[in-house]
Amino acid sequence: MKAWQLLGALLTTGALVSGCQSSIEGRPQASSQSPTEPSFPTTRPTRSSPAPSTTAPPSSSTAHARPPSGPAELKPQDGWVFIETKSGKTRCQLSEQEVGCESDFANSPEIDGENANGVRLTADGEMHWVVGNLGAIPAVTLDYREYRAVGWTIDAATDGTRITNDDSGHGMVIAVEGVKTF
Questions:
Q1: In which residue ranges is the amino acid composition biased (Polar residues) (predicted)?
Q2: Residue 1 belongs to a domain
Q3: Tens place of pLDDT for every residue, the chain, 182 residues?
Q4: pTM beyond cutoff 0.70
Q5: How far apart are alpha carbons 99 and 34 in whole angstroms?
Q6: Residue 180 CA to chain centroid, in angstroms?
Q7: Residue 14: inside a domain, yes or no?
Q8: Please, which residues have CB within 8 angstroms of residue 89's CB and are 6 or more apart in sequence?
Q9: N- or C-end of the chain: fewer Cβ atoms within 10 A?
Q10: How many domains does the chain have?
Q11: How far is CA 32 from CA 24, 35, 116, in A?
Q12: What's the pLDDT at 125?
């Protein structure tokens, strides 16, 4: 009787295993409406805890200290300077030829079905709205004061950041409310 029980168990197991197997004839094909690669929006990385960052020289906060004399110089890394406003709402990268900034703009134009989250300004004053992400740039957090970097003057204030090309005089004031060029 034990042999019969063993044989029954083996037959039951074999039936269960064969019941789990299936084969479908043919070759898989994507439909013409399916994208070949998923598209995910890229957003600015969020931080769950304060990340170590380089901070620009602080402005005077004590009654005994003298205000800084002249703009602070921001040194480039491979020709670029990376900044972030004190509020953390706007980040920019500057080179001698152009400035590119990203922010969560209140009323930006739509580009290819998405609201622009960036702006690019050339040294000669040409501005373009863009959709993009600066990624994990090594940004220096600005205090509310004036800076110089790779031929640009940056005047950071609570109501926006003014960035001016030293040679051409062209520039922009950037804030989450919008961008004004000059």
A1: 22-33
A2: no
A3: 554 454 454 444 444 444 444 444 544 444 344 333 333 344 444 443 344 445 454 544 444 444 567 899 999 999 999 999 999 999 999 999 999 999 999 999 999 999 999 999 999 999 999 999 999 999 999 999 999 999 999 999 999 999 999 999 999 999 999 999 99
A4: no
A5: 37
A6: 21
A7: no
A8: 103, 104, 176
A9: N
A10: 1
A11: 22, 8, 29
A12: 96
Nearest-angstrom CA–CA distance, 122 and 98: 4
Neighbours of 156 (CB within 10 A): 23
Report if residue 145 sits inside a domain.
Answer: yes
DSSP 55: E
Q: Where are the alpha helices (DSSP H) in 21-78?
A: none
Dihedral angle, C-alpha 25, 27, 32, 37, nearest 10 °: 120
**Amino acid of residue 17:** V
Q: Is 113 helix (H, G, I), strand (E, B) or coil?
A: coil
Q: How far apart are CA 176 and CA 103, in angstroms?
A: 6
